[in-house]
Amino acid sequence: MEKLIITAAICGAEVTKEQNPAVPYTIEEIVREAKSAYDAGASIIHLHVRWDDGTPTQDTKRFQEAIDAIKKLCPDVIVQPSTGGAVGMTDLERLASTDVVPTPEFATLDCGTCNFGGDEIFINTDNTIFNFAKIMKERGIKPELEVFDKGMIDIALKADRKGLLVHPLHFDFVLGVQMSATIRDLSFMVGSIPQGSTWTATGIGRSAWSIAAATISMGGHVRVGFEDSVYLEKGVLAKSNGEMVEKVVQLAKLLGREIATPNEAREILSMKK
Q1: Secondary structure letter of residue 129 according to DSSP
Q2: What is the mean pLDDT of the chain?
Q3: Distance between CA atoms of residues 38 and 36, nearest Å
Q4: Which of 143, 148, 197, 193 is nearest to 169 (CA)?
Q5: If 99 and its partner were Cys, which of 7, 17, 60, 94 is the partner (CB 3.0–4.6 Å)?
Q6: What are the tens digits of pLDDT across the range 70-98?
Q7: CA 117 to mean position of chain CA atoms
Q8: CA-to-CA distance for 46 and 79, rounded, in angstroms?
Q9: Is the bond preceding residue 168 a cis peptide, omega within 30 degrees?
């Protein structure tokens, strides 16, 4: 199997310090968590930013400040800004995270509308998805196709048929929100993408570690971090994103997978340096 790429989703837009005091809000806290994940073996930092009070923002200057500070300590890491933002943001607000300099080499592209629970609906119309894909292609940004169920794979493939994506495609299967987080469903998702595509899987909440173990065994790549779960194990809060990445590294060692460096990750994902 090829080497394992680990993505650390260090803060997200919704998780709070009330859930885990180590969740980062300030630039200094974000850099601390990015460095802890990088040092533990993460090649990719999936980045949301907050104002100091924890309010999520897609402000370009805030992203620029965070990326510059992360790159100062982790010069070769891949920083993947989120274009998801937070529930209720406009398309233009969400895309502001890609207006940084230099242009990001990698960013997320959400491929469908999602029910996040209660009344929270994360809206992504077909036109929004196609527009994001078009802009990313024009800017030379590789999209990570974020899919929460099988239908979102089909929408991504619709964008591909329109010539809006560049092969090989890369998917992130987010399981445990709109689709159950089982090995059966993960296998179904893997079998539904084009041959030659690469993929990452994310288990939300209690499913983080079962999905990580299955993904490592199946040859995929793994995302963990405070955005997806704040626990290292049942009832035990993770002290840092680095601690969560270390657990993935331990699982990979048991299952015979080596860990990819950032430059090896770029090669596996067919990304331009």
Answers
A1: H
A2: 96
A3: 6
A4: 197
A5: 60
A6: 999 999 999 999 998 777 778 888 999 99
A7: 20
A8: 6
A9: yes
